[in-house]
Amino acid sequence: MTTEEKIINQTIHLIDTNGYQNLSLRKLTKELGLTTGAFYRHFKDKNELFQKAVIQLSKRFIEQIPLNEDYSSKQQLLIIAKYICQSITMHPNQMDFLFYQLSALDLYSNANQYPFLQKVKVLITNLNSSTTLSDQDLFIQIRSFIQGYALLIKNKITRYDAQLVKYTLDQLLKGKD
């Protein structure tokens, strides 16, 4: 494993443990036995580290979701929604980092660098045959629902309800398979 990979992996671990808001480069480098100078040989700043950590976490996240390519795009979206809702209770700091912090949001404009986002956009494009709603608008609607619902679950306002998620997705897709 390269030094850069070690830094990224330790960053993800510290984010999972303490949240990205509390990540200190001094603490990170100390835990890895590196100097801050060594850190800056691999990353120009903390934002670049966060972007690479988001990409790595996104790869891990999509690889962990039990998707079967034989399932319809709608079935796969339902599986992804369930996985997000489960993950936000088990790894709230990682999920906040992956979906809500600025480095992740910056990557939304380039789905090719963000494997999870790329997969979701492909599924939505496959489902969207509407002439009145762009793929991007449908993506925003579905993302807003899933992430908002996941936050309600994280904050213990509600519990995951597969029927509610399916019904809402059906409404957003207007019954498309």
Fold blueprint:
Blueprint: H1 3-18, H2 25-32, H3 36-42, H4 46-64, H5 73-90, H6 92-100, H7 102-107, H8 115-127, H9 135-154, H10 162-173
Helix pairs in contact: 1-2, 1-4, 1-6, 4-8, 5-6, 5-8, 5-9, 5-10, 8-9, 9-10
Question: Would you kindly provide a written description of the structure presented here, covering whatever features stand out?
Answer:
- By secondary structure, the chain is mostly helical.
- Helices cover 72% and strands 0% of the residues.
- The protein is built from ten helices and no strands.
- The chain has helices at residues 3-18, 25-32, 36-42, 46-64, 73-90, 92-100, 102-107, 115-127, 135-154, 162-173.
- The longest helix is centred in the last third of the chain and has 20 residues, at 135-154.
- The radius of gyration is 18 Å and the shape is elongated.
**H/E series, N to C?**
HHHHHHHHHH
Biggest β-sheet strands, sense, barrel: none
End-to-end separation in angstroms reads 43 Å
Q: Which percent bin holds the helix content? A: over 70%
Helix count equals 10
How many E-type strands?
Answer: 0
What oligomeric state do these chains adopt? single chain
Rg from alpha-carbon coordinates: 18 Å
- Low-pLDDT segments: none
- Shape designation: elongated
Mean model confidence by pLDDT:
89
Helix/strand class: mainly alpha
Percent strand equals under 5%
